[in-house]
Amino acid sequence: MSITAIPGSARFLLRFGVADAPGLAIDTPVLAGERIESVFPIAQPLPQVGSFALHHDGAWLLGHARIDGVRTRLEDATRGLYRELLGLAENHALVRVWNYVPGINALAVDGLEHYRAFCRGRSHAFEDRFGPVFPRHAPAASAVGCEGDALVIAFAAHAGAASHVENPRQLPAYDYPPEHGPRAPTFARASVVDLGEGRRAVFISGTSAIEGHASIAPGETQPQLVSTLQNLGAISRACDLGPDFAADRDIVRHFKVYLRRAEDLPVVQARLESTLLRESDVVSYLRADICRRELNIEIEATLPLVPPT
C-alpha cells in the first residue's frame, strides 16, 4: 500500500479506562500507573482502510481496529479482522499484535471458550495467508480479556528485517498440544526489528507462568509471579538484552502488567519494583482476565529503541 499521511491531530495511542480521550479505547480498568500507552509518539495518521485506523512512523506501519458485538461470532470476527490485518501488512514484517478479547474465559453457545475460538479464527487467517508454513510468520503478541463486547486489535509492522524469538523455558505456543484447544495460539514469544546502525526494537509477548506448555501453581499468584519473572529473564537473554531487559542502558522501557485479581496489586507491584522495574520505566497495571483461567498474571514489555552495545 502507498503511504500518504493525512492532516490532523490523531495519534497512535492505546488508552485504558479513560473516557473522552484520543486514541484506541480498551475496556480494561487501570489499577495503577499509566492510563495511556504511546510507544510511537510521532506516528502520523493515514486514511482508514476497512476496519483499521492506520498510522505510519517512518518504516513503521501501525493500526488498530475495534469491532463491537462479537461475543456470539468471535471466531468469524477474528478470522475476518486478521485477514484484513495480514493484507494491510503484506509489504511489511508483522512484529507485534495486541489483542483484547471480550469475556476471554467465557463459553460460547457451542461450549468453546472464547479464547480458544479466538485462537482458531486467528490461526485459520494465518494459514489462509501463508499456507502450512504460517507459524514462521507468527509475531510477538498478547491476548487478554476486556470488558464489554468488543474485540480490539492493535498492530505494529516494519518495512525492514525482523526476527521472531522463542523462550527456551517454554514450548512455542504454535506447537501446543490439542489439550489447549482445537488450534494452537499463533504467536512468537518475542520479535526483534533491525533498525539499522546496530539499533533494534524489541517486543516481548505477554508472558505468564507457563513452563513447557503447562501452567504453574494454578490460582496462586506469588509462585506464578516467580515463574513469570524467570520466563521474562529467559526471553530477555534470548533477545540479547541480558537477564534484565537492558536495565543498565539509557533507554525507554514500556511494561504492561495484567492482573486477574485487583487485590493482588500491592504484592505484585512491590515485587516488580524491587526486581524488574526502574524509576524511568513506563508501566501500566491493568485488571484483565488472562488467557488461561488458572493464571492470575501476565506481563509484556516493549523496548522501541535499543542502541548498540
Question: Any overview of this molecule?
Answer:
- The longest helix has 18 residues, at 221-238.
- With 309 residues, the protein is an alpha+beta fold.
- The strands form 4 sheets. A 7-stranded mixed sheet has the order 3-17-16-18-13-12-11, with helices on one face. A 6-stranded mixed sheet has the order 5-6-7-10-8-9, with helices on one face. Strands 2-1-4 form a 3-stranded mixed sheet, with no helix packed on it.
- It is globular and about 45 Å long.
- The protein has helices spanning 74-88, 114-130, 221-238, 265-274, and strands spanning 14-16, 24-26, 30-33, 36-37, 44-45, 53-57, 60-67, 93-102, 140-146, 151-158, 162-165, 190-196, 199-207, 210-211, 214-215, 254-259, 282-287, 297-306.
- The protein has a single domain (14-306), classed as RutC-like (60s Ribosomal Protein L30, Chain: A, 2-Layer Sandwich), CATH 3.30.1330.40.
- The two termini are 35 Å apart.
- Helix 1 (74-88) packs parallel to helix 2 (114-130).
